[in-house]
């Protein structure tokens, strides 16, 4: 009887630890140092006339990572908008193209897997419609010849 009680206590403790691990998995991922989205380097490649595809993709991924969670990291979006405002229209189009269409899950999905949205659609869903940051992105896209 005593052994059965120990097994139940052991199973309870293991289940509790598993629940805590799953519940706070993002914390553990950051703590262990894997699967952390690498932020792009604001200092490198900013003045170059044409950015590489890898650099444009890293900026697009940073945009996605700042919006693809509960709460939007508007500081990252503001920094990227400022960066894009200081570069050529070709680079803005490259970032927009690198973003592509990514699935948006937050109450927008009609299907099980959400709707694929482009960058301007993501920004429209995530930012305040009357906000200055969304307006800055819209002006930036229009100057680059991207239909919004």
What does this structure look like?
There is one protein chain. 59% of the residues lie in helices and 4% in strands. It has 148 residues and is mainly alpha-helical. It folds into 2 domains: 31 residues; 91 residues, Annexin V, domain 1 (Orthogonal Bundle), CATH 1.10.220.10. A two-stranded antiparallel ribbon has the order 1-2. Helix 3 packs antiparallel against helix 4. The longest helix is centred in the first third of the chain and has 22 residues. It is elongated, with a radius of gyration of 21 Å. The relative contact order is 0.10.
Offer a few descriptive terms:
Annexin V, domain 1, single chain, mainly alpha, two-stranded antiparallel sheet, 148 residues, 2 strands, 7 helices
Q: Outline the low-pLDDT stretches.
A: 26-40
Instruction: Quote the beta fraction.
Output: under 5%
How many strand units?
Answer: 2
Roughly how many Å apart are the termini?
70 Å
Query: What is the 3D shape?
Result: elongated
As laid out across the biggest beta sheet, the strand order is 1-2
Q: How does the helix and strand content classify structurally? A: mainly alpha
CATH topology of the largest domain: Annexin V, domain 1
Summary?
By secondary structure, the chain is mostly helical. Helices cover 59% and strands 4% of the residues.
Secondary structure topology:
Layout: H1 2-23, H2 25-32, H3 53-67, H4 74-85, H5 89-99, E1 102-104, E2 115-117, H6 119-126, H7 132-143
Antiparallel strand pairs: 1-2
């Amino acid at each position: 009887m005593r052994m059965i009680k120990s097994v139940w206590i052991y199973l309870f403790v293991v289940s509790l630890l598993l629940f805590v691990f799953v519940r706070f998995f993002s914390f553990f991922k950051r703590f262990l140092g894997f699967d952390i989205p690498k932020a792009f380097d604001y200092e490198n490649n900013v003045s170059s006339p044409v950015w590489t595809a890898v650099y444009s993709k890293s900026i697009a991924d940073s945009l996605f990572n700042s919006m693809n969670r509960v709460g939007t990291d508007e500081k990252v979006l503001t920094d990227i908008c400022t960066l894009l405002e200081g570069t050529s229209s070709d680079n803005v189009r490259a970032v927009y193209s690198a973003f592509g269409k990514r699935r948006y899950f937050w109450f927008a999905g009609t299907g099980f897997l959400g709707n694929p949205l482009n960058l301007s659609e993501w920004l429209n869903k995530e930012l305040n419609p009357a906000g200055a940051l969304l307006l800055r992105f819209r002006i930036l896209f229009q100057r680059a010849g991207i239909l919004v």
